[in-house]
Amino acid sequence: MTPSKIWMRLVDERLDDEYLEGVENFLDYAFSHAGRENEIRCPCIKCCNTYSHPRALVSSHLKVYGILRNYTFWYHHGEVAREPQTVSEGQGDEEMQEESADGYDPMQDLLHDLFPQNNNPTEQTTTPPSNEEEPNNEAAKFYKLLDNYNQPLYEGCSTTKLSALVNLLHVKNLGKWSNKSFTMLLEYLRKAFLPQNSTLPNSYYEKKTIQELGLSYRKIDACTNHCMLYWKEDINAESCKVCGASRWKEDKRTGTTMHSAKGKKIPQKTMRYFPLKPRLQRMFMCRKTAESFRWHAEGRVDDGVIRCPADSK
Asked: What PANTHER family does this protein's entry cite (predicted)?
Protein backbone atom coordinates (compact mmCIF):
# COMPACT_ATOMS: atom_id res chain seq x y z
CA MET A 1 0.00 0.00 0.00
CA THR A 2 1.42 3.37 -1.02
CA PRO A 3 1.62 6.16 1.56
CA SER A 4 -0.74 9.13 1.25
CA LYS A 5 0.44 11.61 -1.40
CA ILE A 6 -1.42 14.67 -0.13
CA TRP A 7 1.89 16.00 1.23
CA MET A 8 3.13 16.52 -2.32
CA ARG A 9 0.83 19.54 -2.64
CA LEU A 10 2.84 21.26 0.11
CA VAL A 11 5.96 21.51 -2.05
CA ASP A 12 5.97 25.30 -1.57
CA GLU A 13 5.82 24.83 2.22
CA ARG A 14 8.66 22.38 2.64
CA LEU A 15 9.25 23.19 6.32
CA ASP A 16 5.73 22.04 7.15
CA ASP A 17 5.69 18.98 9.41
CA GLU A 18 3.25 17.19 7.10
CA TYR A 19 5.60 17.63 4.13
CA LEU A 20 8.64 16.43 6.10
CA GLU A 21 6.73 13.39 7.37
CA GLY A 22 5.54 12.67 3.84
CA VAL A 23 9.14 12.69 2.59
CA GLU A 24 10.16 10.10 5.16
CA ASN A 25 7.14 7.90 4.36
CA PHE A 26 7.98 8.11 0.66
CA LEU A 27 11.62 7.13 1.33
CA ASP A 28 10.53 4.19 3.51
CA TYR A 29 8.25 3.00 0.70
CA ALA A 30 10.78 3.54 -2.10
CA PHE A 31 13.67 1.77 -0.35
CA SER A 32 11.40 -1.12 0.69
CA HIS A 33 10.93 -1.76 -3.05
CA ALA A 34 14.57 -1.14 -3.99
CA GLY A 35 15.70 -4.66 -3.04
CA ARG A 36 19.41 -4.71 -2.33
CA GLU A 37 20.00 -1.39 -4.01
CA ASN A 38 21.36 1.33 -1.73
CA GLU A 39 20.24 4.10 -4.09
CA ILE A 40 16.97 5.16 -5.71
CA ARG A 41 16.08 7.67 -8.42
CA CYS A 42 15.68 11.12 -6.95
CA PRO A 43 12.26 12.68 -7.81
CA CYS A 44 13.25 16.21 -6.81
CA ILE A 45 12.82 19.16 -9.17
CA LYS A 46 16.58 19.22 -9.79
CA CYS A 47 17.14 15.52 -10.58
CA CYS A 48 13.75 14.71 -12.21
CA ASN A 49 14.12 10.94 -11.62
CA THR A 50 17.25 10.97 -13.80
CA TYR A 51 19.96 10.50 -11.17
CA SER A 52 20.18 7.92 -8.37
CA HIS A 53 21.35 8.81 -4.86
CA PRO A 54 21.48 7.25 -1.37
CA ARG A 55 18.66 7.95 1.09
CA ALA A 56 20.29 10.86 2.91
CA LEU A 57 20.93 12.79 -0.31
CA VAL A 58 17.45 12.11 -1.75
CA SER A 59 15.92 13.28 1.53
CA SER A 60 18.01 16.46 1.41
CA HIS A 61 17.05 17.17 -2.21
CA LEU A 62 13.33 16.70 -1.53
CA LYS A 63 13.51 19.12 1.38
CA VAL A 64 15.67 21.72 -0.39
CA TYR A 65 14.35 21.59 -3.96
CA GLY A 66 10.95 19.93 -3.53
CA ILE A 67 9.38 16.91 -5.25
CA LEU A 68 8.04 16.94 -8.82
CA ARG A 69 4.40 18.01 -8.55
CA ASN A 70 3.15 15.76 -11.34
CA TYR A 71 4.95 12.62 -10.15
CA THR A 72 1.85 11.18 -8.52
CA PHE A 73 2.31 7.61 -9.81
CA TRP A 74 5.60 6.41 -8.30
CA TYR A 75 6.42 3.92 -11.07
CA HIS A 76 10.19 4.52 -10.66
CA HIS A 77 9.93 3.51 -7.01
CA GLY A 78 7.92 0.30 -7.13
CA GLU A 79 4.29 1.43 -7.30
CA VAL A 80 2.05 -0.69 -9.51
CA ALA A 81 -1.32 0.11 -11.04
CA ARG A 82 -4.37 -0.30 -8.78
CA GLU A 83 -2.19 -0.42 -5.66
CA PRO A 84 -4.29 0.97 -2.78
CA GLN A 85 -3.22 4.21 -1.16
CA THR A 86 -3.20 5.09 2.52
CA VAL A 87 -5.68 7.88 3.23
CA SER A 88 -4.35 10.45 5.65
CA GLU A 89 -6.57 11.92 8.34
CA GLY A 90 -8.72 14.73 6.96
CA GLN A 91 -7.74 14.02 3.39
CA GLY A 92 -10.39 15.61 1.23
CA ASP A 93 -8.60 16.09 -2.02
CA GLU A 94 -11.01 15.02 -4.75
CA GLU A 95 -8.24 14.13 -7.17
CA MET A 96 -6.57 11.77 -4.70
CA GLN A 97 -9.88 10.18 -3.80
CA GLU A 98 -10.69 9.68 -7.46
CA GLU A 99 -7.36 7.97 -8.14
CA SER A 100 -7.70 5.63 -5.17
CA ALA A 101 -11.38 4.91 -5.72
CA ASP A 102 -12.48 1.38 -6.59
CA GLY A 103 -12.70 0.83 -10.31
CA TYR A 104 -10.08 3.37 -11.34
CA ASP A 105 -7.74 1.97 -13.95
CA PRO A 106 -4.78 3.99 -15.30
CA MET A 107 -5.13 2.05 -18.56
CA GLN A 108 -8.05 4.39 -19.32
CA ASP A 109 -5.70 7.38 -19.15
CA LEU A 110 -3.11 5.51 -21.24
CA LEU A 111 -5.60 4.85 -24.05
CA HIS A 112 -6.92 8.40 -23.85
CA ASP A 113 -3.41 9.84 -24.21
CA LEU A 114 -2.58 7.51 -27.12
CA PHE A 115 -5.77 8.41 -28.97
CA PRO A 116 -6.82 11.92 -27.88
CA GLN A 117 -9.20 12.22 -30.82
CA ASN A 118 -11.32 9.48 -29.22
CA ASN A 119 -12.38 11.47 -26.18
CA ASN A 120 -13.74 8.86 -23.76
CA PRO A 121 -12.49 5.37 -24.61
CA THR A 122 -14.51 3.67 -21.89
CA GLU A 123 -17.75 5.22 -23.11
CA GLN A 124 -17.32 4.16 -26.73
CA THR A 125 -18.22 0.86 -28.26
CA THR A 126 -15.45 -1.51 -29.22
CA THR A 127 -16.55 -1.48 -32.86
CA PRO A 128 -17.45 1.50 -35.04
CA PRO A 129 -21.14 2.17 -35.73
CA SER A 130 -22.37 0.22 -38.75
CA ASN A 131 -23.94 3.27 -40.39
CA GLU A 132 -20.63 5.17 -40.59
CA GLU A 133 -17.65 4.82 -42.91
CA GLU A 134 -14.82 2.41 -42.17
CA PRO A 135 -12.37 3.73 -39.52
CA ASN A 136 -8.99 5.06 -40.62
CA ASN A 137 -5.76 3.40 -39.47
CA GLU A 138 -5.52 5.32 -36.19
CA ALA A 139 -9.16 4.67 -35.32
CA ALA A 140 -8.76 1.00 -36.23
CA LYS A 141 -5.82 0.75 -33.82
CA PHE A 142 -7.92 2.40 -31.15
CA TYR A 143 -10.79 -0.04 -31.55
CA LYS A 144 -8.39 -2.98 -31.49
CA LEU A 145 -6.70 -1.73 -28.33
CA LEU A 146 -10.09 -1.10 -26.77
CA ASP A 147 -11.05 -4.69 -27.54
CA ASN A 148 -7.91 -5.83 -25.72
CA TYR A 149 -8.60 -3.40 -22.89
CA ASN A 150 -12.13 -4.74 -22.35
CA GLN A 151 -11.07 -8.38 -22.71
CA PRO A 152 -10.68 -9.99 -19.24
CA LEU A 153 -7.58 -12.03 -18.49
CA TYR A 154 -9.91 -15.00 -18.12
CA GLU A 155 -13.66 -15.42 -17.70
CA GLY A 156 -14.80 -13.78 -14.48
CA CYS A 157 -11.48 -11.97 -13.88
CA SER A 158 -11.61 -8.24 -13.04
CA THR A 159 -8.14 -7.62 -14.54
CA THR A 160 -7.93 -6.97 -18.27
CA LYS A 161 -5.39 -8.47 -20.66
CA LEU A 162 -3.84 -5.06 -21.44
CA SER A 163 -3.58 -4.08 -17.77
CA ALA A 164 -1.97 -7.43 -16.86
CA LEU A 165 0.59 -7.13 -19.69
CA VAL A 166 1.61 -3.59 -18.80
CA ASN A 167 1.95 -4.38 -15.08
CA LEU A 168 3.94 -7.57 -15.69
CA LEU A 169 6.32 -5.74 -18.02
CA HIS A 170 6.65 -3.00 -15.39
CA VAL A 171 7.70 -5.63 -12.80
CA LYS A 172 10.11 -7.14 -15.35
CA ASN A 173 11.73 -3.75 -15.86
CA LEU A 174 12.01 -2.98 -12.14
CA GLY A 175 13.43 -6.43 -11.41
CA LYS A 176 15.81 -6.33 -14.37
CA TRP A 177 14.63 -9.77 -15.48
CA SER A 178 15.93 -11.43 -18.60
CA ASN A 179 13.53 -12.23 -21.44
CA LYS A 180 14.04 -15.93 -20.76
CA SER A 181 13.16 -15.68 -17.06
CA PHE A 182 10.09 -13.57 -17.89
CA THR A 183 8.91 -16.20 -20.36
CA MET A 184 9.38 -18.86 -17.67
CA LEU A 185 7.17 -16.81 -15.34
CA LEU A 186 4.43 -16.48 -17.97
CA GLU A 187 4.53 -20.22 -18.65
CA TYR A 188 4.30 -21.00 -14.93
CA LEU A 189 1.41 -18.59 -14.38
CA ARG A 190 -0.54 -20.11 -17.27
CA LYS A 191 0.18 -23.67 -16.16
CA ALA A 192 -0.26 -23.42 -12.39
CA PHE A 193 -2.61 -20.50 -11.68
CA LEU A 194 -4.66 -19.51 -14.71
CA PRO A 195 -7.46 -21.42 -16.44
CA GLN A 196 -6.99 -22.78 -19.96
CA ASN A 197 -8.99 -19.94 -21.51
CA SER A 198 -6.57 -17.31 -20.18
CA THR A 199 -5.52 -14.61 -22.66
CA LEU A 200 -2.08 -14.13 -21.07
CA PRO A 201 0.70 -14.54 -23.69
CA ASN A 202 2.75 -17.75 -23.69
CA SER A 203 6.07 -15.91 -23.86
CA TYR A 204 7.69 -12.49 -23.68
CA TYR A 205 7.93 -12.35 -27.46
CA GLU A 206 4.16 -12.69 -27.87
CA LYS A 207 3.40 -9.03 -27.13
CA LYS A 208 1.70 -7.50 -30.15
CA THR A 209 -0.56 -5.41 -27.93
CA ILE A 210 2.44 -3.70 -26.34
CA GLN A 211 3.98 -3.03 -29.77
CA GLU A 212 0.79 -1.23 -30.78
CA LEU A 213 1.30 1.11 -27.85
CA GLY A 214 4.40 2.42 -29.59
CA LEU A 215 6.90 0.45 -27.51
CA SER A 216 8.36 -1.61 -30.33
CA TYR A 217 11.80 -1.27 -31.94
CA ARG A 218 13.53 -1.70 -35.29
CA LYS A 219 16.14 -4.37 -35.94
CA ILE A 220 19.22 -3.24 -37.88
CA ASP A 221 21.94 -5.73 -38.82
CA ALA A 222 25.45 -4.71 -37.74
CA CYS A 223 29.00 -5.76 -38.47
CA THR A 224 30.27 -8.39 -36.02
CA ASN A 225 33.28 -6.13 -35.35
CA HIS A 226 31.12 -3.02 -34.75
CA CYS A 227 32.41 -1.31 -37.90
CA MET A 228 29.14 -0.36 -39.57
CA LEU A 229 25.37 -0.80 -39.76
CA TYR A 230 23.61 -2.39 -42.70
CA TRP A 231 21.08 0.31 -43.45
CA LYS A 232 20.33 3.17 -45.84
CA GLU A 233 22.65 2.71 -48.86
CA ASP A 234 24.25 -0.40 -47.24
CA ILE A 235 21.01 -2.21 -46.41
CA ASN A 236 21.62 -4.90 -49.05
CA ALA A 237 25.37 -5.32 -48.48
CA GLU A 238 26.60 -8.87 -47.89
CA SER A 239 29.82 -7.99 -46.07
CA CYS A 240 31.38 -5.15 -44.08
CA LYS A 241 32.93 -2.48 -46.29
CA VAL A 242 35.46 -1.67 -43.54
CA CYS A 243 36.83 -5.03 -42.36
CA GLY A 244 35.34 -7.36 -44.95
CA ALA A 245 33.62 -9.64 -42.40
CA SER A 246 30.56 -11.51 -43.63
CA ARG A 247 27.19 -10.14 -42.60
CA TRP A 248 25.76 -13.62 -42.02
CA LYS A 249 26.46 -16.43 -39.59
CA GLU A 250 28.19 -19.46 -41.07
CA ASP A 251 28.11 -23.10 -40.06
CA LYS A 252 31.57 -23.86 -38.63
CA ARG A 253 31.60 -27.38 -40.07
CA THR A 254 30.29 -26.78 -43.58
CA GLY A 255 31.07 -23.08 -44.02
CA THR A 256 27.59 -22.44 -45.44
CA THR A 257 25.36 -19.54 -44.46
CA MET A 258 22.95 -20.36 -41.64
CA HIS A 259 19.20 -19.83 -42.07
CA SER A 260 16.33 -19.46 -39.60
CA ALA A 261 13.28 -21.73 -39.49
CA LYS A 262 11.56 -19.27 -41.84
CA GLY A 263 14.37 -19.57 -44.38
CA LYS A 264 15.93 -16.17 -43.71
CA LYS A 265 19.68 -15.65 -43.36
CA ILE A 266 20.82 -15.16 -39.77
CA PRO A 267 22.93 -12.00 -39.23
CA GLN A 268 26.13 -12.05 -37.17
CA LYS A 269 24.98 -9.15 -34.99
CA THR A 270 21.75 -7.16 -34.67
CA MET A 271 21.17 -3.74 -33.16
CA ARG A 272 17.75 -2.95 -31.72
CA TYR A 273 16.94 0.68 -32.40
CA PHE A 274 14.22 2.71 -30.68
CA PRO A 275 13.32 5.53 -33.11
CA LEU A 276 13.55 8.91 -31.38
CA LYS A 277 10.54 10.67 -32.90
CA PRO A 278 7.88 8.13 -31.84
CA ARG A 279 9.37 8.05 -28.33
CA LEU A 280 9.19 11.84 -28.02
CA GLN A 281 5.67 11.83 -29.45
CA ARG A 282 4.57 9.25 -26.87
CA MET A 283 6.13 11.28 -24.03
CA PHE A 284 4.35 14.45 -25.11
CA MET A 285 1.07 12.58 -25.65
CA CYS A 286 1.04 11.52 -22.00
CA ARG A 287 -0.31 14.33 -19.82
CA LYS A 288 1.95 13.53 -16.87
CA THR A 289 5.28 13.37 -18.72
CA ALA A 290 4.37 16.28 -21.01
CA GLU A 291 4.10 18.56 -17.97
CA SER A 292 7.65 17.62 -16.95
CA PHE A 293 8.92 18.20 -20.49
CA ARG A 294 7.50 21.73 -20.48
CA TRP A 295 8.86 22.60 -17.05
CA HIS A 296 11.85 24.65 -18.25
CA ALA A 297 9.53 26.85 -20.29
CA GLU A 298 6.56 27.06 -17.92
CA GLY A 299 7.64 26.19 -14.39
CA ARG A 300 11.19 27.48 -14.06
CA VAL A 301 11.67 30.59 -11.95
CA ASP A 302 13.21 33.37 -14.07
CA ASP A 303 14.36 35.95 -11.53
CA GLY A 304 17.95 36.52 -12.65
CA VAL A 305 19.39 33.98 -10.20
CA ILE A 306 21.26 31.02 -11.65
CA ARG A 307 19.59 27.91 -10.27
CA CYS A 308 20.37 25.36 -12.99
CA PRO A 309 22.30 25.27 -16.32
CA ALA A 310 19.16 26.43 -18.14
CA ASP A 311 19.49 29.82 -16.40
CA SER A 312 22.89 30.55 -17.99
CA LYS A 313 23.47 32.14 -21.38
From this structure: OS08G0208400 PROTEIN (PTHR10775), PTHR10775:SF173
